[in-house]
Write the structure tokens for this entry.
Amino acid sequence: MGQSTTKSRRDFLKKSAVASVAAATLGSAPRVVSAASSVLPNKKADGPLVISSRNGQQSVLKAMELIQGGADALEAVVAGVNLVEEDPNDTSVGYGGAPNALGIVQLDAAVMHGPTGRAGSVACIEGIKYPSKVAKLVLERTDHVNLVGKGAQDFAVMHGFPVENLLTEQAREMWVRWRENLSNRDEYLPPHDPSDAIIGSDYVPQKRSWGTIHCSAIDLAGNISSVTTTSGMAFKIPGRVGDSPIIGAGLYCDNEVGAAGSTGRGEANLETLASFLIVERMREGDSPEAACLFACKRISDHTKVAHLLDENGRPNFNVQFYALNTAGEVGGAEIWGGNGKFAAANSEGGFLVDLAALYTRD
Ligand code: GLY
């Protein structure tokens, strides 16, 4: 993500400073809101609000601009993440996303609309640059929730989407390097006992990226919507579906409570339906941050397979959660952290907010 991330962060800071009433005291640095402060600086606490994973610093500003112009939260969050879906330098989402093990880019996305409670998603869709737009169409123009693979692509084509080559040169080279270094370090596991930390004779789990973008918003009418979109785990087994397109896992929202979404190792989230869990915890009174930390702890407690645990019995992977509630509070947490942040915006501008951490490394 190097060059583009630097550029987009610079743009984000510039726009944040313009919008910020406190720009003079904050200089050119982003305003960083500590995890303890769950309410962003805001003249109007019940005003519109947008949150996103950190790679959505432009997305939250775009969504907020549309919301302030009167857009529904669903339209706004999808337009926000479209900026990242079309960015060839973000290798975790949309065009330019890392391909699967066969070198084919397969994308997952989902949306949820608070006022109607409806959801739409696509999984393993190929050749369509904006899977979040197709997920929105599944919500709006079908009586279904999930469309997968060729069916999802055919549905997109029926609605006028072009089928494009999404494999950029950068992503293709990443894939070739991976193929050239293949050994027994992949996800095709031999029969094994769950307590077997060394699958087969010399299995060593690879470090993989699970980049994704999640974005949720509250619009001027107080309605909430969410979107999550991703190219999924880099070099995944073809056909693998992550958490992003699964309602309750990659995202969940309830107009009466709030919204939550995730990035990181989707398999852990699929087994815990943590975004739904977070919204339910907020319904019971947890702050967004406390609910996100609860979900991290749930995943940690849930993880029992030896090859996913470190020497102290803690997960050896990471998952991040982001949440907002109807009181205008935001919060996020990750399993492993210390310096993690997420993006947020309100009528005052853009912010980077601390992610709380379940575990930190010494
Ligand atoms: N969280 C994204 C994925 O696992 O596909």
Observations:
- Residues 210, 212, 230, 232-233, 242-244, 263-266 surround glycine (CB under 6 Å).
- Residues 1-29 have pLDDT under 50 and may be disordered.
